[in-house]
Amino acid sequence: MAESITITDNRTGEELEIPLVNGGIDAAEWRSLLPGVWFHDPGLATTSAAESAVTYLDGDNGVLRHRGYPIEQLAEHSTYLEVAYLLIHGELPTQDQLDAWVHDITHHTYVHENFRKRFVDAFHYNAHPMGMLESSVAGLSTFYPEAKEIEDPEVRMHQVVRLIAKMPTLAAMAYRYSIGMPFVFPDNNLDFPGNFLSMMWRVAEPTYEADPVLTRALDTLFILHADHEQNCSTTAARVVGSSHADPYSSVAAACAALYGPRHGGANEAVLSMLNEIGSFDNVDRFIAGVKDGKERLMGFGHRVYKSYDPRATIIKKTAHEVFAVTGQNPWLDIALKLEEVALEDDYFVSRKLYPNVDFYSGLIYQSMGFPTNMFTVLFAIARTSGWLAHWTEMLEQSSRIARPRQVYIGEDTRDYVPIAQR
Ligand code: CMC
């Protein structure tokens, strides 16, 4: 049977056969058959804007795979840097490839002294770390003018390494600056998450030694946030990248998109919600408020997942491992009760609302000592590898500049009226 859909144009009575390609309608074919008829799709909820081999997501069945590997296996057996390699290169590395990759990343963690002294020091004393990160990434492009040579694979890869390596440095720098603490230089003897924790927390000790459970938990959280196919920030990176801007500009755009509370800021919102509920006894009243439309259960629901977010399952286990070291998070009881009530309530069940990745991640970050304004920054460190995997993939394909159309709903033509007559 032919893979196509036949539609009737009621304006002319003409029947048109629209072919299906990879389960979707080829818009180019549609355009040639129905010129001037647009797909109106705000939020791009039913539009595929890319052919991608990076990440597979089946929201109905709670499946997430990177380059074919299930997220559960990567979270259990891999490291963030290995997953970053997988996302960028398409295959898991051999030991030699991994060693070279880790060495390369480790030796690109420093930022230019002028950048630290003149650029970072210019921020207001109470600047939000995410705002600092976003503009710092854009600022880096001025230090690497060769990054504009986006057609050269070697130059491209050099910037990919630099960006993955420097994000933790910029993130920790933003945090230390915001609390008035001196900057801690990267320590090449530490692994990726351990070095970040050292740059965050080290004070006067010669070497910062993080608890291995916490280091591993942070690495797991980085793995879980590394990529999520065509989400808002990745789309922002692709749209800017499609104009052939340099990768620092594309990643800065992605950071800007992530900054918003509907995307990277949801884990912070979960903590505000738990704070507002305040005690175990108020859970039922809060749930009633959600059902009345007065409240929103943050950390629940997802545009794509209509079953349990597989990342939430892994994060819940990680949370218990972290709390065994840090002591139980005071909000955990309320969170567990909320989840229990919601999963049994028809309002949530019928709408297929399940916990998403952010329901527990904020609790973990809080217990590890991160202030809430760093939560989105942590997300950005991890998602940088995903943004760059999609950016690289896009440039390797014959991509066109992103330039959507619109349905015009404004005034028809009218004559200019001199100001005295208005
Ligand atoms: N609490 C209460 N009701 C909800 C929620 C929620 N968290 N999420 C959706 N609903 C209701 C919604 O009101 C609608 O009800 P009705 O059919 O009666 O109008 C129904 O469920 C279907 O919602 P939807 O329109 O399919 O949801 P959406 O795809 O437009 O929005 C969402 C997805 C993630 C923005 C939304 O679920 C939400 O606001 N969740 C809370 C915020 C959150 O946790 N965001 C993190 C997402 S994961 C991180 C990331 O990818 O960036």
Write the H/E string, N to C.
EEEHEEEHHHHHHHHHHHHHHHHH
Q: Let me know the CATH homologous superfamily of the largest domain.
A: Citrate Synthase, domain 1
The profile of the biggest β sheet is:
3 strands, antiparallel
Radius of gyration: 24 Å
Per-chain topology:
Elements: E1 4-9, E2 14-21, E3 24-25, H1 27-33, E4 55-58, E5 63-66, E6 69-70, H2 71-77, H3 80-89, H4 95-106, H5 113-119, H6 129-140, H7 153-178, H8 192-201, H9 212-225, H10 232-241, H11 247-259, H12 266-277, H13 283-291, H14 310-326, H15 332-344, H16 346-350, H17 358-367, H18 375-396
Antiparallel strand pairs: 1-2, 2-3, 4-5, 5-6
Task: Give an overview of the whole structure.
A hairpin with a 4-residue loop joins strand 1 and strand 2. The longest helix has 26 residues, at 153-178. The N and C termini lie far apart (63 Å). The chain has 18 helices and 6 strands. Strands 1-2-3 form a 3-stranded antiparallel β-sheet. Strands 4-5-6 form a 3-stranded antiparallel β-sheet. The protein has 422 residues and is mostly helical. The mean pLDDT is 93. Helix 14 packs parallel to helix 17 (358-367). It folds into 2 domains: 1-38, no CATH class; 52-401, Citrate Synthase, domain 1 (Orthogonal Bundle). It binds carboxymethyl coenzyme *A. Carboxymethyl coenzyme *A binds at residues 228, 231, 262-263, 266, 290, 296-303, 351, 353, 356-358. Carboxymethyl coenzyme *A binds next to loops.
